[in-house]
């Protein structure tokens, strides 16, 4: 790139020595370095947009809760973090942040445990089912277009409508999947659900997971399918000529190439699952299934702004750790 394009005309007045130094420095930049220099204002703007809310939330978390006229109380430093993590604040929170005991009931009453359980199980099944759906859709067969529509349809349904569907399905005396104590349904007879599953934390969490898998598997399938269709079909022809079976073609051709795409899809879904709120609120309510986002919203509505900001910042930190794990795995997988 020429000097004229980079610097323009020299100023008629001013410090020509400083101007000459800047011109000399810019002339010594490589094309890549000069491109980054031009992108620096955009990076700074995006950084301010991304990090200013986090910094503001962290600052708010350093103040005590105020239940009076003031929005926040006195400055207490990391006191909110200590109180929430150690359980000192549990009596004032709608649900404990950490499990108070090593029991099933305690885990399903803990906001962090419920969020982790929801995220791990839902992302696992969405990835497996989405992968299978992508493998099917990657084949040529009659009616493939209609199968794609059928798979995508649940993803197009709004969360509120989705939540009401599953709420009615598992509502006693209304839904066909749940009966009463006098007339139990099939799932009740198998012992998989109680007769009031939406009022039971464990049952309601599993119902929310099923609802999330039903809706969001299509998202995983579409991302993985896009990666599969970018694979050079000549690789499969070479593998067939070499005598590779269908399993060997999948193991040595499809899976290694598609793995980075699967990692990116899992990263997106993990971030979304960690922030789950609307689905839980519409299916059973946050009082039954206490996710981290539910805890943030509830404490905020109760004017516990310091606690709400603290839980929000901890949630962001957990998501950042999860993203870092995915990135490290992605980089190592690409080496």
Automatic annotation (TrEMBL):
Entry-linked PROSITE patterns:
ABC_TM1
PANTHER family in the cross-refs? BLR7065 PROTEIN, SPERMIDINE_PUTRESCINE TRANSPORT SYSTEM PERMEASE PROTEIN
Where do the TM regions start and end?
34-55, 106-137, 149-170, 213-231, 252-271, 309-331
Q: How does it sit in the membrane?
A: Multi-pass membrane protein
Query: What are the entry keywords?
Result: Cell membrane, Membrane, Transmembrane, Transmembrane helix, Transport
**Keyword Lipid biosynthesis on this protein?**
no
**Species of provenance:** Halobellus rarus
One cellular component GO annotation, for this chain's record? plasma membrane
Major subcellular site = membrane
Can you name this protein?
Carbohydrate ABC transporter permease
Question: What are the residue boundaries of the ABC transmembrane type-1 domain, all occurrences included?
Answer: 112-332
Extract the CDD domains matched here. Answer: TM_PBP2
Under SUPFAM superfamilies, the record lists: MetI-like (SSF161098)
